Amino acid sequence: MKTYVFEGKNVEELTLQALKELNVKEEEMITSVTEETTGLLKKKKYTLNVVLKSDILEFSKEYVKKIVEGMGFNNVILETQRKENFIKITIHTDNSSLLIGKGGRTLSSIQNLLRTVLAKEVPAFVNVLLDVENYKEKQQKNIERLAIKLAKEVRKTKEPITMDSMNSYERRLVHSVLSEFKGVETESEGEEPNRRVVIKPKE
């Protein structure tokens, strides 16, 4: 993946130079800046590293397709979306349930591999979301519905309820959806991978 490097004495000027030379908008770039002091007068020199989101998207597509096909899946189709704060890749195959894995573990493993590779290739963090047949989107809605249902029960009975163990992303969903829910509060307890959300009545 190509990284564009710009060097100079002013970060704002370097950013404008990058925008002009690459002919892109600022939201289309992922950037990082390094600072160096040089010479006897200790003048500051800045290096702006730029990777284009379009290049990240193409790299990610090729990497994911290579992994999925290497696992033996056929007729792999990748659907991509480039948003301001994240890139989403949705995989479509003949056997989506097998690719998702139990509890989404296979899908999560592929996403972790992709994030590890991108961390080496891209000079700054980029949020890439991987999904299969919109499994995560459906799962998110199911978790949110369950959390609200249990919260209503806790509010009614005044008794706490401990949910099944969840990964950190799923727990954040529960905390988020119930943060404005009157009469209850949430907290996580236990150790990974069996960490759970407890929904409690709020005084």
Defining traits:
203 residues, alpha+beta, GMP Synthetase, Chain A, domain 3, Ribosomal Protein S8, Chain: A, domain 1, 3 domains, three-stranded antiparallel beta sheet, 42% helix
Protein described:
This protein is an alpha+beta fold and 203 residues long. It folds into 3 domains: 4-52; 54-133, GMP Synthetase, Chain A, domain 3; 137-201, R3H-like domain (Ribosomal Protein S8, Chain: A, domain 1), CATH 3.30.1370.50. It is built from 6 helices and 9 strands. The protein has helices at residues 11-22, 53-70, 96-100, 105-121, 135-157, 168-178, and strands at residues 4-8, 29-38, 43-52, 77-82, 87-92, 128-132, 161-162, 184-189, 196-201. The strands form 3 sheets. Strands 1-3-2 form a 3-stranded antiparallel β-sheet. A 3-stranded mixed β-sheet has the order 4-5-6, with helices on both faces. The chain is globular. It starts with a strand and ends with a strand.
Distance between the termini: 54 Å
- Note the overall shape: globular
User: Could you estimate the helical fraction of the residues in percent?
Assistant: 40-55%
How many strand segments?
9
Order of helices and strands: EHEEHEEHHEHEHEE
CATH domain class of the largest domain: Alpha Beta
> What is the total number of structural domains?
3
Question: For the report, how would you describe the main beta sheet?
Answer: 3 strands, antiparallel
Instruction: Report the radius of gyration as a whole number of Å.
Output: 22 Å
Alpha plus pi helix count: 6
Beta strand %: 25-35%
Low-confidence stretches: none
Q: What structural class is derived from the secondary structure elements? A: alpha+beta
Please tell me the CATH architecture of the largest domain by its name.
Answer: 2-Layer Sandwich
The residue-averaged pLDDT reads 90
CATH topology of the largest domain: GMP Synthetase, Chain A, domain 3
Widest sheet: strand ordering: 1-3-2
Q: By CATH's scheme, which homologous superfamily of the largest domain applies?
A: K homology (KH) domain
